[in-house]
Specification:
alpha+beta, 4-stranded antiparallel beta sheet, 20 strands
């Protein structure tokens, strides 16, 4: 991964706004066009899911590039013809060897078939060479041309516009009607550059006033309109291998290789590199748009990157055939923009760390289940926090399902809800009375605290902590609900309830971890905590901090990622402050100095320290009173 990202950076494929490449966007027109996607969409889904998608894509690319072609290779592997000339009998070589001088023309036309009489010349690159990696003003092999096309009335009314690319050897004729025209000296490629997509309007409104900020006059949801992308990158693949004639060419080359049987050679591949095109850069073509900005970039491409980009398209086809849900355009944009704007070394570290995050997430689930499965006593644990966690996890699940979030995130939060619900059976006594139903076949269910919790000071501390906590949380909840209702837009009252609760939990949910801190303080002990599970979750929290700097997100959300760190550091301080004391009684009624049990003649101080009585005691306390102490 490090080598791949390093080459992306230093071989001209790590795009920046000033590198004359695909991410370069021409100056916007005087009348700002309608954006292609709704702005200010919430980006509050799990950031690590984005990097899990990145890792999965690299795995699929390796599979497409390395594994699948092996099934199509014949007995005679492809070789390399010397100087790009004819290969051995029965094999075809490239018509354009490395170093061949050629020109590149770009035309626009409303017609699918290319013709000089119906096409307009946009751009002409000359003095190009096949496999020249140090061409251009920046010596990176790239040529750039920026222009603006006139938006005709036909285009403004969902018309079509094709771009015709013609690569020809230096001095060769490109008009097929001329008698000296040589088709082996010319490579043509056509592409419909206007995109037709359904308009997706935000269905959110202010529930009090009924108004919306995203309202567009005359626009209808689901209406098919045309879009224009302001960037195009063209490449000639420098591939000098020879391919066996009569045998299956492995993908993805089988879609591009055209062998001329007369000369036993194939045409070079003229390729449109659209991988780095962002959906957010699409411009809606309408009657307010007078000009269409266009940046044309020529850049050579290697076999490795050609296979990598084509593997992405093959992955989409495989996902479609297998019924696997595909990432949305917004998610693809997040991945691409992150790769464009992030240092390659940080990018490599983040990809590796995302794998570690998945392992830690699994280990946290595993140890959490093991802890509660083997727990006998609930002394020292905040049961109210566990009950409240079910409510918070349910809100998260409903919010995720209501907003069509990534499937990996939905599965993760659903597993968390199941675990939280299972914990209730371990911390509460639940009985089901079928003989005394509530209504019809619905049985009567009774829930009671376990004796180890109800008969210990833990319940008193827990109630006291939530009492103090309610003084803070209730006013914050009311204030946030009023703010959300007045200033934010929602799809309906159900969505408002979910988004309000989810936003509230996102901002103030970390406060719900404080009752356990209060119980630890009162008991002067942390031995009852599931430290393995807390450690794994803390490590994942630190990983989330890394994602907060890498992935583009609101500043407040980035700051919010550090709140859990503060709670964990307080846990660590309590572990240091209430460290092991062999004479202190723990929540299980034992101590290190007396593992077999506290002697009957021993005194237990208010701090929990055991003091063994001596013979000089004039008025020793009764045994029962010592136990009560």
């Amino acid at each position: 991964f490090t080598t791949l990202l390093y080459t992306i950076k230093f071989e001209g494929l790590y795009y920046t706004p000033h590198s004359n490449t695909m991410s370069t966007v021409a100056e916007p027109p005087a009348n700002p066009p309608e954006p292609a996607t709704p702005a200010d969409q919430q980006q509050q889904q799990e950031p690590q899911s984005t990097w899990k998608s990145v890792v999965w894509r690299f795995v699929m690319m390796y599979f497409m590039i390395s594994v699948i072609p092996s099934f199509f290779r014949g007995k005679a592997p492809a070789g390399t013809a010397p100087n790009g000339g004819p290969g051995v009998p029965g094999q075809a070589s490239n018509m354009w060897p490395t170093g061949t001088e050629f020109e590149l023309f770009v035309y626009s036309s409303p017609y699918k078939e290319f013709s000089l009489t119906t096409s307009s010349l946009i751009c002409h690159f000359h003095d190009l060479k096949v496999g020249e990696w140090y061409d251009g003003a920046d010596s990176n092999g790239q040529r750039t041309f920026q222009t603006e096309l006139t938006a005709t009335p036909e285009l403004q009314n969902n018309g079509s516009l094709y771009l015709h690319m013609v690569a020809a050897k230096e001095g060769a004729l490109i008009d097929p009607l001329l008698p000296d025209y040589k088709p082996r000296d010319v490579v043509k490629l056509s592409k419909l550059w206007t995109r037709f997509k359904k308009r997706k309007l935000e269905s959110t409104t202010n529930l009090l006033t009924g108004e919306t900020k995203n309202k567009i006059e005359g626009a209808e949801d689901g209406e098919i309109i045309s879009y224009w992308h302001p960037n195009i990158t063209l490449s000639i693949l420098d591939d000098q291998r020879v391919w066996p004639v009569g045998q299956q060419i492995p993908p993805p080359f089988d879609k591009f290789i055209e062998i001329d049987m007369e000369v036993m050679q194939y045409h070079p591949i003229l390729y449109i590199n659209d991988y780095w095109e962002l959906t957010s850069d699409l411009i809606a073509v309408n009657d307010t748009l007078d000009v269409l900005p266009l940046t044309i970039v020529y850049s050579p491409i290697s076999i490795f990157y050609f296979q990598m980009y084509e593997a992405q398209k093959m992955q989409k086809q495989w996902n479609s055939m297998l019924g696997v849900s595909e990432a949305s355009d917004e998610e693809n944009d997040i991945i691409k923009r992150t790769m464009l704007e992030t240092n390659p070394y940080i990018l490599a570290v983040t990809i590796v760390v995302s794998l570690v995050h998945t392992v830690f997430e699994f280990l946290a689930f595993k140890n959490d289940i093991q802890f509660w499965k083997s727990r006998k006593s609930l002394e020292g644990l905040s049961i109210r926090t566990i009950i409240f966690s079910i409510f918070t996890q349910l809100i998260v699940v409903l919010y995720v399902l209501d907003n069509d979030t990534n499937m990996m995130v939905a599965i993760s939060v659903c597993i968390g809800l199941v675990i939280e619900a299972w914990k209730i059976t371990k911390v509460m006594d639940i009985t089901v009375d079928w003989s005394n139903p509530i209504f019809g076949p619905i049985p009567r269910v009774s829930v009671q605290d376990k004796s180890s919790y109800a008969e210990s000071p833990t319940k008193q501390y827990d109630n006291l902590a939530f009492k103090y906590l309610s003084w803070v949380l209730v006013p914050l909840l009311i204030g946030y609900a009023v703010y959300s209702l007045l200033y934010e837009e929602h799809k309906g009252w159900y969505s408002w309830t979910l988004s309000m609760c989810y936003g509230y939990l996102l901002m103030f949910g970390f406060i719900m971890m404080t009752p356990q801190l209060f119980i630890n303080y009162k008991m002067k002990s942390v031995a009852h905590l599931p430290w393995r599970m807390l450690t794994y979750k803390a490590l994942n929290t630190f990983i989330d901090d890394l994602f907060a700097f890498v992935i583009k997100m609101p500043t407040l959300y980035r700051i919010g990622c550090f709140r859990d760190d503060i709670i964990f550091f307080i846990y660590l301080y309590q572990r240091w402050a209430y460290r092991e004391d062999p004479n202190r009684v723990n929540e299980f009624g034992t101590c290190g100095a007396h593992p077999e049990g506290i002697p009957e003649d021993a005194d237990v101080t208010g701090e929990g320290t055991v003091i063994v009585g001596n013979e000089n005691d004039v008025n020793p306390k009764p045994v029962e009173e010592k136990k009560n102490d």
